[in-house]
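Exercise: predict the structure of this protein bound to iron/sulfur cluster.
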Amino acid sequence: MTSDLFPNFGDSIGVYVHVPFCASPCSYCAFYKELPRKPLLKSYVSVLEEEWKMRHCSEPIGTVFFGGGTPSLLSCSAFHKIRQFLPIDPKILVEWTVECNPSTLSLEKLQTFADIGVTRISLGVQSFSEKFLGILGRRQSAAQIFHAYDMLRKFSFDVNLDLIFSIPGQRLRHWEEDLKTAVQLGPDHISAYHLTLEKGTKFTEKYATRVGSGERFHRLAVSYLVSSGMEHYEVSNFAKKGKRCIHSVNTWRMGEWLAIGPSGASQYRGRRFQNISNLEKWMDGIFQKNPIEVEVQAIDQSTLLEDTIIFGLRMRDGIPLATMDLMECSKSQKYRCKFSQWCDAGLLKKTATHYALTDRGMLLADALALEIL
Ligand code: SF4
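Solution:
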């Protein structure tokens, strides 16, 4: 597969670093995670470096994203070490995000981020209400969130705030309070996600019947944040002008990214694969120079087109017509027929450059994506 199938990011790729440590697991979360024991943290960084060498990545790095888990649990020296082995050219890098838990930030850590070239911090707020933070089992207090935000603003990072709605017991007025507080802080970006009920968690057993569809919460987020001057550029994401998350946009546009670390999922050189979600097995695989990958899939033209449409529909800009042409395949005609029906129903519009959902279609983005599947 040649890079012209990934048309939105020039020659560069995104690099994702998965940091699987959480000091205190949140009750709603089913992500793979480990407690941050010191010896594990130390060997994690060394093995990460080994994996990086083993992947033989020669493409220029356009974006970096540290996700987790809780990346901000890593020490300052760990961040410096990772910076040393990632061949980042500051003239090419356009964005470097680190996901942070408010309770793990300090001025020293933020200074380290600034020193190594981090440009963007994504702060896991979820809610400003002590009551709802408690229900979610989050580690931080509201006071810690405000303190973390104050510290962040002493630096020149772009800041994203992650929020969650449809928390059990949450009413629209509580959600509006969270939105209002977030906007008053003045972040560059807000992600507002519906609470996901993960199978097998105690949280889901306890609250399964108390989490609704969230449609009214989502509508409120859209109207509140758009009237506050933010651009609604993806179903769950809002940004000030010029402050979209470029790393995410690259993945939604089916660009290429390479993930390192346990559980990291890649789309790279024509393959999709995920590193095993087990720290020790991941380390063993790297030691034996045989990374353990799961969900391995060769990407063909039709898979790429289908995902381009599904993720493109979730974006306000929609799906570039040029991309549709570039990824022409046996299913293209079927999709064009579907688009024509949606245009007739007022759910989709065709501009000179894109197919994009209308406001009404945007509210049905998930259901329309299912029709494509
Ligand atoms: S910090 Fe994030 S990854 Fe860790 S348990 Fe909480 S929600 Fe899950």
